[in-house]
Design brief:
There is one protein chain. The chain has 211 residues and is an alpha+beta fold. The chain has one domain: BirA Bifunctional Protein, domain 2 (2-Layer Sandwich). 23% of the residues lie in helices and 31% in strands. The strands form 3 sheets. Strands 1-2-3-7-6-5-4 form a 7-stranded mixed sheet, with helices on both faces. A hairpin with a 3-residue loop joins strand 4 (94-96) and strand 5 (100-103). The protein is globular. It starts with a strand and ends with a strand.
Amino acid sequence: MEIHYFNSLSSTQKYLVEAIQNNVLKPPVAVLALEQNLGVGSRDNEWVGGNGNFFASFAIKLEKLPKDLLLSSASIYFSFIMKQTLMDLGEKVWLKWPNDFYLGSEKVGGTITKKVNDTLVCGIGINLKKTQNGFSYLKSDITPKILLDKYILELEKFPKWKQVFSEYEIEFDLSRKFSVHIEDYKESLENAYLCDDGSLIIGNKKVYNLR
């Protein structure tokens, strides 16, 4: 996968989406910024931060993804592969449903995914060394470049969704102590049922991750 490096971008996600839409860049491609000041988080929140933290986005054609991966499962899929990459590098992180990286009870990062025609663009932000966005950080010596290189190596193995889900399903119990935003309100995950497509059943309602 081709990687483009920048000292600073307002948002790696916005930059790559626009570059794909305007045929400036073509998938598979990734961008990495050392600093980001208007990053896109979940529910239209910002994800910003300075040098040493991880701000990256990548684009992959839908046809390259595993045949058993649904679009509604993509954010969990991409996030869990990053979680495994971080663990392989010695970081004790876990993935809160559907797309947040946690260290213990503190959020340290997140993932957001957007479909652009026949391409998925995924942005990942992780506080590796410090925080400027109100969340915690890993206090890690990993460099953003090394993390992205190792992540892409794992991602391009394209494990089947079934394989990723079988491992994530075990970890999901850690999410039960938390709540999740669904539309404009919070729902506890204590009694949620995790379906094999990555969606949840909370009460009588099925909830999909579409971020």
